[in-house]
Amino acid sequence: MAIANQLKRVDFIFNNENDWEKVLSSSIKKKPQDLINELISSELKGRGGAGFPTGIKWKLAAEAKNDSKYIICNADEGEPGTFKDREILSKVPYKVLTAMAICGYITGAKEGFIYLRGEYKFLQTELQKAIDEFQYYCKEIKFDFSITIFMGSGAYICGEETALMESMEGKRGEPRNKPPFPTQNGYLDKPTVINNVETLVHTFTIFKYGAKKFYDLGVQYSRGTKLFSVSGDTPKPGIYELELGMSLQDFVYEFGDGDTKAVQVGGASGFLVPRKKFKDAAIGFKGKLTGISLPTGGSMMLFNSSRSMYNVLDNYLEFFREESCGQCTPCRVGCQQLLLGIKAVKRGEKPASYLEKLLRLTETMQLTAKCGLGQSVANSFSSIVENFQEEMIY
Amino acid sequence: MANTINVSINGFPVELEKGKTILEAAGKLGITIPTLCYHKDLCVAGNCRVCVVEVVGQARLSASCATPCEEGMEILTNSLKVRNSRKHIIELLLAEHNADCTKCYRNGNCELQKLSSEYKIMTQEFIELAPLKKYSIDMFSPSIIKDDSKCIRCQRCVRTCAELQGVNALTVAHKGDKMRITTFFEKAMRDVVCTNCGQCVNHCPTGALVEKNYIEEVWEAIANPIKHVVVQTAPAVRIGLGEELGLPPGSRVTGQMVSALKRLGFDSVLDTDFTADLTIMEEGTELLTRLKKVLVDHDETVKLPMATSCSPGWIKYIEHMYPQYLDNLSTCKSPQQMFGALVKTYYAKARNIDPENIVSVSIMPCTAKKFEAYRPEMHDSGFRDVDYVLTTRELAILIKQAGLDFNKLEPAKFDRLMGDSTGAGVIFGATGGVMEAALRTAYELVTGREVPFKNLNIEPVRGMEGIRETSIKIENPLKEWAFLDGVELKCAVAHGLVNAKTVMDTVKSGTSNYHFIEFMACPGGCLGGGGQPIPTSPEIRKKRAEAIYAEDGALTIRKSHENPEVQKLYRDFLKHPLSEVSHHLLHTKYTKRERY
């Protein structure tokens, strides 16, 4: 994919002109089909990490025939190293609520839910106030759409959309088999649109300014901007809205501490890029898994040369071992094997060649795990083990 | 056009109905895809991932049990990618599983072991997890042993307990490496709502859930010269046992079974069918008495509908779930327990044996019977009425250990005194059987005529529908039953506790007006019991049911009240149904239990 020329800071998301009422009331005067077309032409892709085209998702749900449909805002922000959704919900909640309502208008859903991460309970009161005011306005303009907060309980896996729905239905948070997909059989088996908080905010931008303004930013296959949660060995940690398609080189130049050894793009389930590959790596969708482009939910963790990559991997694997729902074999047993395996190699109980066996195991996990969690453990494992093999052994 | 689609599997085309899965498509072509979490009785889980296949053009593999076929799909079930992944998954399961196969109760009939053998997993390259986790084995239940070290987390037991039984004693707890199958608050199986039905045992692919076996205890009793060891065999054992000994489902092996039991050294081989007939006499009379008290005396303390009480899984279920309806249960003990109480009284007296020296063993298609025999109220003979309960599977083990060539055994006959059986007693083994047997007797008792069904076959109560209803109108009854003239006797049959729940809820809400309901805890009734051969499936249970009805049809006496030994029992010992002796030995009380 193309790489953008330079790092460009943008300010769509947190720039608050407090005009949500106008955006809502003018949007629901338009034809749903026109709104969908606008969204599709923006080429917005889901910002939770998987990158499914948002317009297509809404279209599928709009076309699904059912008396009840639902809109869910996925605010179970659990990926290690991301903290952007928290900021969106506390700074510009009305944009999220408006986007949900417009989505409801387009698809025919009358009910929306915000699945709020258990650890974000402190946001609940303020968010509820915003919802109350929002509902009041909806009533005023005689627009029928309700929004309810559903509190999560702290399981990482419940950020997976179908596990999230199971959790909302009062069941154990375990991913479902796909197909069927949520746009057909979602919450309570009804057609459901489920979007990440940030994705919804981008739709607000698109409905406000039109698709072109969004589309003109970014590069081919990766249009628009994205929020990045920058953390680790950086002098300026925080949340930044940047144009997609930037090279990792530029990113590190801007945010690194001058001694950046590697960047973990996309959190524990993402990829680790070593210094020698910064130049070739770009942030965006499409492309090979470890190659040139790196899709991300927005977590950017910088590591300088004082960090042991073995410890980093050990930490991720411990996280996955615990946060796997435990339902499918490759993920449940695989995560345990990977963690115990690297420990055994480090202690010299297993030969260095055992790492090869573990790499093949991650391939199987990627091919066979039931959901994105088990499938993506391979990302960090293989990118760390392959690039920092010595650190794993000695 | 709309209802069929075409796919290709390993290059071979197959046409099939829309909505069918890849697994079903492969089955149609005669290709077996290995499965572990999949079971024909249960909803699809798609969590073991052993059944993955490659769909050409897709980056990831698909679980064939959970993926519906789509037009034009090219499926590979044995590509290198599939094989390598599948082998990896089996290796992972073996690394997690306590693979000490030689010391496992399911050695030889374990689905994981079979897969491991098929894929020739000869070494363990991964790190063994079972020794790292400090598993404890739950052996407190008199029926079921739960060993988590052998669990592969397929959740078949959880789905069985929820979907087939509606009990939800087993559930999934924790996540990640700590995820396991457990009970409410991780209590012992003994202390939760578990009905001991053993369906989880029947559906477990490995040795994580097995029956508590009493094989050594029985051998010891047989070897003890002082002890007189009596064995009774339940109706469903004779049509199930063959499967454990290499015969196809539905094989009728009554004669060989009796012969084998004699060769094993039991002193007397008797038939639970005898007390099944006795149950009909007691329970039928109880029903008619209740009808009289309700219809004529308007006695409000007497409850209708009357529910059967033969199935100990059902009894424990109603004690937990509907304790306010215990008065609706027939007070009759199950045939096993009637038998036990009579063996140490009637039989002991007739044979002049000190009851203290009698060891009473029963062979049951059931694990809940083990719990039933262990109940404190089951000591009416002055001793424990039934000492040891073995499942059909355990009997097969005895036969194998004794080195008997089952197929070469000359059929033999049950011993006398409590060995006579009618067709009515035999069909107790199938869902609807108790109802049919009761109607055959009660109708004739009341009207003096046979039930108005061809060949005595009451077809409406047969079959595998979860809940079945029928009604019989009573016309021109005998003088003493005149109050029943014109009464339409409404009956229902439910099998599988999830169906029992549906029926009980209609009773609770007052939307049904049944007089008599037969409840069986297990799908298919006793023939699908938790102590029957593994595997089980709807097709297998259907074959077993056909065998049961064939047994019934082949017998000359097919009505309980015509059982000559039962008649003799009443003449010599009990006097009449619901007599004082009957009440003491053959009837029981129930215990209210909590759900948690």
Poorly predicted regions of chain A: none
Determine the CATH superfamily of the largest domain in chain A: NADH-ubiquinone oxidoreductase 51kDa subunit
Oligomer: heterodimer
Number of domains of chain A: 2
Average predicted local confidence, pLDDT of chain B: 96
CATH topology of the largest domain in chain A: Rossmann fold
Helix and strand content put the structural class of chain B at: alpha/beta
Order of helices and strands of chain A: HHHEHHEHEHEHHEEEEHEEEEEHHHHH
Q: What is the percentage of strand-forming residues of chain B?
A: 5-15%
How is the largest sheet of chain A built, in terms of strand order?
8-7-13-9-10
The tally of structural domains of chain B comes to 3
The helix fraction of chain B, in percent, is 25-40%
The biggest chain-chain interface is: A-B, 36 and 37 residues
The helix fraction of chain A, in percent, is: 40-55%
Content-based structural category of chain A: alpha/beta
User: In this structure, how is the largest beta sheet of chain B organized?
Assistant: 5 strands, mixed
The CATH class label of the largest domain in chain B is: Alpha Beta
CATH architecture of the largest domain in chain A: 3-Layer(aba) Sandwich
Structure in words:
- The complex is a heterodimer of chains A (394) and B (596).
- Chain A has helices at 20-27, 32-42, 54-63, 84-91, 93-107, 124-140, 161-168, 197-209, 211-215, 248-255, 309-323, 329-346, 354-368, 372-387, 389-393; strands at residues 70-75, 111-116, 146-151, 192-196, 218-219, 222-223, 225-232, 238-243, 260-265, 271-274, 282-283, 293-294, 299-304.
- Chain A is an alpha/beta fold and 394 residues long.
- In chain A, helix 6 (124-140) links the parallel strand 2 (111-116) and strand 3 (146-151).
- In chain B, helix 9 packs across helix 11 (335-351) and helix 9 crosses helix 15 (433-447).
- Chain B folds into three domains: 4-78, Ubiquitin-like (UB roll), CATH 3.10.20.740; 92-211, Alpha-Beta Plaits (2-Layer Sandwich); 275-332 and 421-586, Fe-only Hydrogenase (Larger Subunit), Chain L, domain 3 (3-Layer(aba) Sandwich), CATH 3.40.950.
- In chain B, the strands form five sheets. A five-stranded mixed beta sheet of chain B has the order 2-1-5-3-4, with helices on both faces. Chain B has a four-stranded parallel beta sheet with strand order 12-11-14-15, with helices on both faces. Chain B has a four-stranded mixed beta sheet with strand order 13-18-17-16.
- The interface between A and B is large, with 36 and 37 residues.
